[in-house]
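Supplementary Note 2. Why include the ligand at all?

Several targets in our set were suspected to adopt different conformations when bound, so apo predictions alone were not considered sufficient. For every target with a known small-molecule partner we therefore ran a joint prediction. The input for pyridoxal-5'-phosphate is given below.
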Amino acid sequence: MLDINKIRADFPILSRKVNGQPLVYFDNAATSQKPQQVIDKIVEYYTQYNANIHRGVHALSQEATDLYEASREKCRAFFNIPTSRQCLFTSGNTHSINAVASGAHVFVNQGDEVIVSAVEHHSNIVPWQMLCERVGAHLKVIPVLDNGQLDMNAYQNLLNARTAFVVVNHISNALGVTNPVKEIIAGAHKHQAKVLIDGAQSCGHMKVDVQDLDADFYTMAGHKMCGPTGIGLLYGKEDALLALPPYQGGGEMIDQVTFEHTTYAGLPHKFEAGTPNIAGGIALGAAVDYLNEIGMEHIAAYENELLVYGTEKIKNIPGAVIYGDVKDKAAVISFNVENLHPYDIGTIVDKLGIAVRTGHHCAQPIMDRYQIAGTVRASFAFYNTKEEIDVMVQALQRAVNMLS
Ligand SMILES: *Cc1c(COP(=O)(O)O)cnc(C)c1O
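The joint prediction is reproduced in token form.
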């Protein structure tokens, strides 16, 4: 059982008011809030040991380097990444995907096929489109069933000898549906295709074990797992990372530089050009400590309780339609109320202090699939409560009355 009052006290923002009302923050799929422990780490870095890392012999640089690398080790363990060489810091989930897609011409040849799903975030579509254009490969799309799940029969039929790469999210940000990624990965590997799993929505909400999943690449967003913005992670299998060319050139990612020829640093530094987000990296380690202390199993179980409770309540609103209402999903409820525009609902509930997301959620293709402009999305985290859901449902009811 979680001590919700104690947890909520760790998140200073949760005690503020918005439009004169206590904040109800249900936009966790866009970004999570940060506990004081994470905020303190950022301040601590800049006040105690701000220095560049991996370069200086002086004490501050050593301290900062040690803490940054200790944080990498925490992240490694958190996702069961086999070695810290395979746990790369990036500026975020989008950067992680682009780092792979930009070098993926070593895996994808002209005439090959790259498979994405119809329920991807734009950041897991566009980099692959760009890759396909560059190498003359074809983008194929796994269709989505009416209930929001991937059409796995269609997926099996898409796989063939030309399949070179498969990219799918673990949990959809637009619908919250958990995809059968183990089955997807195993299917792709039968055809020697590489697989990247976009873990932006899973990383802070469930226990993720990259070795158990067996993906070639897995991406994470620090700011969606209680860490700061501007920091993310990229996991890769060792052979895949060794084959992948570096994404950016610069300091830190080199071994020897001459004007004739440059050799690159080994893993993980080959993908970490330039001065990184040092404070962000160190603070992400504090976020991992925080999540570990509560326990990802407890977080997942509690968030599921919120999901079940919220789903039931929203279903009781006359005219409400939930997209992706399946059992295997994260605490994300994407819905519309008949004849009402999601933006109008979002605006009214915001006046009552409630933060929900409205629109296409950076996933236009899945909105097109349902022939809607967007949805209202309420996404929960472990610091939310059933009482907050009641407040939202009352506000929704009020919005419906005002608008219809
Ligand atoms: C948030 C999100 C992204 C994009 O991550 P950034 O933090 O914007 O880089 C990609 N995919 C999914 C599923 C997401 O939820």
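Residues 4-27+296-403 form a domain with the Aspartate Aminotransferase, domain 1 fold (CATH 3.90.1150.10). The pocket of pyridoxal-5'-phosphate is lined by residues 92-94, 121, 123-124, 169, 173, 198, 200-201, 221 (CB under 6 Å). Comparable summaries for the other entries are listed in the accompanying table.
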